[in-house]
C-alpha cells in the first residue's frame, strides 16, 4: 500500500528553491476608501517583497478616491471619532484643525497621503464591478466591469471588498448624520427646522477633549493651536503618546458595553445627566430625546450643538416619525401635516453588508441572497462558499468599539499573510469551512447577549430589529479581534492545491536564503 501511495503522489522534482512561486497572483480590490489605500500601502511599502508575488488593481466606480468622505458632503458632516486616531496608521496627520475633523478635511488628508505614498498607482477610476462569478476549474473570479459605457471581463485570483460598512446617505432621522445636520441648519437665519425621529439616541461626550492636553476647556470640539500642531509635527514621540492615550482609553472602556454591568449603569447615568443639563432640564424635551435603554445599544454620537438646537424657537422635534411625503408636506405617523420647503433625509446608510455587485460563489451560491436576511461571516473577513474572497468591515466587524482604522489595518495584515502563503505554496483556493462559521456565529451570539448592543433599542447593529441578531458589531473587544486575526487559523479553511502533491513547494530542498553566500546561516543561534 505504501508503494502504491508513493506512486499516486509522485511528481517530478521542481528545480527551484523552496517557496518559489509558480506565478504572480492577480489581486483586485473593489472600492477606494481607507481600506483599499491601507491595503495598497501594505503591498507597495510595508511588504515590498510582495511585488514579486502579486499584482494589484483597485477598481473604483466613482471619479475620485475617498469612499465615504468623497460622497458625503451634507451640512455639518464630520467624523465622530477623534481625528488623531482616525488616521492612516503609517502616516498619522499631525495638524488636524479640531479634535473632531470635518469631512472636507478628512478627504483632503486622504488625497494628500495617497499622493505622498503613490497609493493611487494601481487605482482605476470610473470602473464599476457589476458581477463576480467564481470559476472552480480555474480557481479564479471572473469579474464583469463597466467603464465609460463599455463592459469588459477582468480575472482575479483574489477578490477583496473595500466597500466598507457605511455608504451613501440619503433631516429625517437622528443618527450620526442627523445629529450633525440639525445644528448646521438651525443656525441659518430665517430657517425653521422640523426634526422627525422615531426613537431617541444618546448624544454624549464622556470627557472634555482638551483635558488630554492638560487644559481646562469643556468645549466639545476644541481647535488645536498652532503650537499644538507644531509639537505634533516635530515631536513624533509626543504625537504617538497622545494617540496612544486616546486608544488606551477606548480599549479600557469596553467593560462599559457589558449589559447590566456597574460600568454601563454608571456611564448611562452620566450620559442622561449630561443630556438633561444640555436640554436645560426641560421635561418635555428630556422625555422625547433621552433614551430608556442603556448607553451603547445604538452608536454613541458626540453631536456638538445638537441638543442645544432644540431649545431654539425655530426648531421642533416630532417623535412619531415620518410616514408620507407630499408635494409640500411631511405627514407624521399620528396624521399631522407639516408644511416644508426642503427635506433632508438622514435616514441612515445602507448597512445591509451585501456586496454592491452580483456575486456568485462556489456551487452557484448568491452572496446577496444569502445575506439578504442574516449576513454571516468568518471574523468579518471572509464568507462561506466564497473562495479567495476577503472583506474589510464585513458582518460582525469591529465597528462599535475600538479604532476603526486600526481594525482595517489588522485585517490588511491578515490578508497579506494569506496571500504570502497562497503564492508560495501553490494553493488554488481557500474558503472558510461552513461548520466553522456556524460554530463561530453560535458562540458569538451568546457573547452578544451579554453586551449592550443587544438591548431593546432599534439599531443598524441589529438591522433595525429591536430584538434581532447583532450582525454589525464584533462579539468581543477590539483587542480580542486583533489577537484572533494576528495569525492564520488554517484549520478553519478548506485548502485546495493546484498540483497533485501539496508539498511540491519544497522544490530542491533548499531555501533561497541559504543559497546566497552573503547571508548569515547561523542567525538563529541566540546563546
UniProtKB/TrEMBL annotation:
It comes from the Eukaryota. Pfam families: NAD_binding_8 (PF13450). Its cofactor is FAD. Keywords: FAD, Flavoprotein. Gene3D superfamilies: FAD/NAD(P)-binding domain. PANTHER family: FAD_NAD(P)-BINDING DOMAIN-CONTAINING PROTEIN, L-ORNITHINE N(5)-MONOOXYGENASE-RELATED. Belongs to the FAD-binding monooxygenase family. This is FAD/NAD(P)-binding domain-containing protein. It comes from Paecilomyces lecythidis.
